Amino acid sequence: DTGVSQDPRHKITKRGQNVTFRCDPISEHNRLYWYRQTLGQGPEFLTYFQNEAQLEKSRLLSDRFSAERPKGSFSTLEIQRTEQGDSAMYLCASSFVETQYFGPGTRLLVL
Amino acid sequence: AQSVTQLGSHVSVSEGALVLLRCNYSSSVPPYLFWYVQYPNQGLQLLLKYTTGATLVKGINGFEAEFKKSETSFHLTKPSAHMSDAAEYFCAGPNFGNEKLTFGTGTRLTIIP
User: Fold this and answer.
1) Rounded to 5°, angle at Cα A100 from A96 and A101
2) Distance between CA A86 and CA B89 in Å, rounded?
3) Residues of B in contact with A95 (CB under 8 A)
């Protein structure tokens, strides 16, 4: 069990650029989640996959955000035309049943 | 929808003293609740999990939590604080009808030498 991994760990970008993050879940987990965490706050749910199907999206996930899980394994989260308000830690988690295991996160800074 | 409330955004205790971090859930009894710990610039690590059944749950690093339905609480305790316990702690519970977790706002624990 290698745990949930995320890449990159840090990303600095300029406003208006596109960024893509990757998450590799624990191998036997069929559920994958994305959360966003801003400074001093708890994580907030963004979206959730069961296998390759995206089953729920938060209202936080604007049209500039898109997530995929093409083969039910790894997932990508893309943010288009980044804004300074997108600066946050993006956390990925996976589960087989109710317990979610988190990756180390990708910290995004938009200048 | 389920919600969790953490009382006290900052808690300071002396090394060796009792740690008590408070979490209350909304009135609907949840099927499960979690405590996670987050060290600086890292992801969340599962400390312990409550599922329907045993009300006293033991976790890693000497932490435990007691589920009290009468008080709608799930407070986290550790008998003797260690310097390595300094971190942010989050209580989390499910939103009924879907898979997402709702997190409290977190409690930053500082250990005084």
Assistant:
1) 105
2) 24
3) 99
Taking only the tens place, the pLDDT of each residue in B32-91 is: 899 999 998 888 999 999 988 889 999 999 999 999 989 999 999 999 999 999 999 999
Answer whether A46's CB lies under 8 Å from A21's CB: no
Quick check: helix, strand or coil at residue A59? coil
pLDDT tens-digit map of A57-93: 998 888 999 999 998 899 999 999 999 999 999 999 9
Q: Which residue of B has its CA nearest to A4?
A: B43
The C-alpha of B103 sits at a distance from chain A's nearest C-alpha, in angstroms, of: 6
Query: Measured between beta carbons, which residues in chain A are less than 8 angstroms from residue B53?
Result: none
Q: How far is A102 from chain B (nearest CA, A)?
A: 6
Contact B6, B108 (CB under 8 A): no
Tell me which residue of A78, A87, A85 sits closest to A108, measured CA to CA.
Answer: A87
Q: In this structure, what token pair is assigned to residue B26?
A: 């909304």
